[in-house]
Specification:
This protein is 25% helix and 21% strand. The protein is α+β, with helices and mostly antiparallel strands. A five-stranded antiparallel beta sheet has the order 1-2-3-5-4, covered by helices on one side. A hairpin with a 7-residue loop joins strand 2 and strand 3. It starts with 10 loop residues before the first helix and ends in a 9-residue tail after the last strand. Bound molecules: adenosine monophosphate and zinc ion (ZN). The site of adenosine monophosphate (AMP) has 11 residues, from loops.
Length: 120
């Protein structure tokens, strides 16, 4: 069972702890939202729980309240970025074939204009 404890070599645990700099969008006691360093849309933010879980499914299985809180926080980030009215995309890449490169669960919040189709 994953327990949410910090992982020493995890980049996003370090960002949440302030040990690696990031451009902060919002922070709460349990969540941290920051700008993606390599944006794929006009607005591209990442939202993470401070607790370490490898991906969205592991988070939901072990800490369902935190999984719900992460989605709610993604909505708050979208509001803060002015995306709520026109819409936005929330993406959880899960595993290598999906392009997941950081194995600390993160919601991509993308918007700012019409987004391209996806799935290829
Ligand atoms: P994924 O490919 O779903 O695992 O997403 C990881 C995301 O983290 C990518 O979009 C990267 O551009 C982003 N990223 C990697 N390092 C940093 C960093 N130091 N600060 C902000 N975003 C980062
Ligand atoms: Zn982590």
């Amino acid at each position: 069972m994953a327990d949410g404890k910090p992982v020493a070599e995890c980049l996003f645990c370090k960002i949440a702890a302030g040990q690696v700099p990031a451009t902060v969008v919002r922070e709460t006691e349990s969540m941290f939202a920051f700008k993606d360093i390599n944006p794929q849309a006009g607005v591209h933010d990442l939202v993470i729980p401070r607790a370490h879980y490898a991906n969205a499914v592991e988070l939901a299985a072990n800490a369902p309240d935190l999984a719900a809180a992460l989605l709610i926080e993604a909505g708050e980030v979208a509001k803060a970025e002015g995306l709520a009215e026109d819409g936005y995309r929330v993406v959880f890449n899960t595993g290598t074939h999906a392009g997941q490169t950081v194995f600390h669960v993160h919601a991509h919040v993308l918007g700012g204009d019409f987004l391209s189709t996806f799935g290829s």
